[in-house]
Amino acid sequence: MTGSGKKKRGRRIIRLLLLLLVLGAVGYFVIFRGVNKAVTVTYDTYTTRKGNISNTLNFSGSMSAKNYETLSADNGGLVRKIYVSEAQSVKKDERLIRLSTGEMIKASFDGQVNQISVSEGDEVTANQNLIQIVDFSEMTVSIRVDEYSISKVYLGQPCKVNLTALGTSFDTEIAHINRISSSNGNTAYYTVSCDVNVTDDVLPGMQVTVTIPLQEASDAIILNKSALSFAGDNSAYVLISGENGEMTQVPVTVGVDNDNYVEIASGLTEGQTVYKIAEKKTTGNTGLFSGLQGLSNSNQTNTQRNNSNRNYSGNYQRNSGGNFGGMPPGGMR
Fold it and tell me: Rounded distance, CA 58 to CA 209, Å?
């Protein structure tokens, strides 16, 4: 072999060695660095508590007088005598106004004089309004219930009327359901009313919210609904941390649900801490052999985040439906 041939062969060997070194380095970073990747799992934590939980239907409406009347003259004539004054309480059949024709205007129920529209000596015509009597002690509230919720409402059903302006409430029950729809749109609405015995500071026109309870559980185990996870068959479970920090799926049975909290009928006890995966983050080289990351599961670390810890007690209610406070009319769907 000539000298030039030996030189060419030497250069080829050097290039081959360099290539092997490069491939070895690439293999190290792609394979071994990939194997050593870590998966960091962050959890939200929640704690069970005992308390009361309920879900409700909520609707908006306004107070209106159940009994009121505006009395007028049957025939024209002069107003001879007015026996009462405005804001005066009157009894049924009490004399109110006497006309020159001999006609006597009387109250047809117990109430209060709300307005007198004439004075003594005035000449009035037939059917002219003279005086208005209102019973302010008993009010009625009418609400519109949509077609999705009307099946949950029945006569005699307990409900609570909450007055926005006064911050007071009255217990009553559903007194009437008009089963003929009051709407011609895409959604049918039905008028439901309840009667309320009120105090003197309650006036017609005041805005109210009518709350109709559906389900309630007392002294129950309650958990923030966000803590629940669901399996493929839609069964609920939570994650419990073991002695070595490993997470175990624990199936739970849920009861009353108010969209924010849920009753845990079985599976957990009071004061237990449960977890839900908030984030999974992979660290390290994400090369072509990322599939080998399973070999490094022994390096997986779990951290817990407590900033979402939910502490709660007392009563929890669902507010769904209704158009009070900017919500669309209707009930829970």
Answer: 7
